[in-house]
Amino acid sequence: MRINLIFVLTLIFAYNADNIDGVIFKFTNFVCDIHNASWIKVHQCRLKAVKRNHITLNMNATLLLPVNRAHVQVQFLKNSNGYKLFHYNATIDICRFLNQSYDPVAIMIFRQFKEFSNFNHTCPYMGNIYVKDLYLRPELVPLPIPTGEYLLNLKWIFDKKAAITTKQYFIIEESK
Ligand SMILES: *[C@@H]1O[C@H](CO)[C@@H](O)[C@H](O)[C@H]1NC(C)=O
Ligand SMILES: *[C@@H]1O[C@H](CO)[C@@H](O)[C@H](O)[C@H]1NC(C)=O
Ligand SMILES: *[C@@H]1O[C@H](CO)[C@@H](O)[C@H](O)[C@H]1NC(C)=O
Ligand SMILES: *[C@@H]1O[C@H](CO)[C@@H](O)[C@H](O)[C@H]1NC(C)=O
Ligand SMILES: *[C@@H]1O[C@H](CO)[C@@H](O)[C@H](O)[C@H]1NC(C)=O
Is there an atom of ligand 1 within 6 Å of 159 CB? Predict the structure, then answer.
């Protein structure tokens, strides 16, 4: 696990920044790649355009086996002639994290979707899991993150075996 400490500290201390007006965070694509169909069945994996700058992310899936041990490999990438790692590449122990949030970047991601999802309790997980009408809220993403095109790549690993990768593409731009 390699974390750029300055990036993380910036995220933490920028939490109270109030200069976020004039920035738009918007999903541009959402992809679900299944690695192991024994673990998960995806019913829905899509973005919905509610209105011009309001795009919501929706996912609905069934966990076919009880998940007692889970990790997520988090990569934050920025597009500049192809997506390249942008400061953050870490593996989070999900069951440990759900007991006690311990990683600042994971906390930031979790805050974005917790209230739009039933992914909000401690392990084990089994059966239906969903994210519904999630939209990005810049006030929960501490600046400074430069404008540009980003990819949050999440590889979900159950019982040490890759189950699914979800790719959340979004842009950060100045509003006009
Ligand atoms: C898929 O998951 C099942 C259940 O854990 C496991 O038995 C199987 O080995 C996995 N397959 C691969 C290719 O990892
Ligand atoms: C998810 O899909 C299942 C099966 O299709 C459905 O019963 C359930 O209502 C869906 N949940 C949400 C939140 O859309
Ligand atoms: C990101 O982390 C994974 C797992 O720890 C590692 O295999 C991979 O090489 C890392 N990628 C980069 C670009 O550092
Ligand atoms: C989470 O907390 C419960 C209850 O305190 C404990 O039994 C369990 O082992 C913890 N799990 C992890 C992954 O830390
Ligand atoms: C978890 O999500 C479910 C479904 O949205 C909701 O009913 C429940 O109150 C949530 N629990 C917590 C602790 O946020």
Answer: yes
CA distances from 4 to 7, 10, 84 (A): 5, 10, 15
Separation of CA 157 and ligand 2 centre (Å): 23
**CA proximity to 176, closest of 52, 78, 55, 57:** 52
The pLDDT of residue 56 is 95
118 in contact with ligand 5, CB cutoff 6 A = yes
Find the 125 Cα to ligand 4 centroid distance in Å: 14
Q: What is the mean pLDDT of residues 123-148?
A: 87
Whole-structure pTM value: 0.86
Q: With 80 as the cut, is the pLDDT of residue 2 above it?
A: no
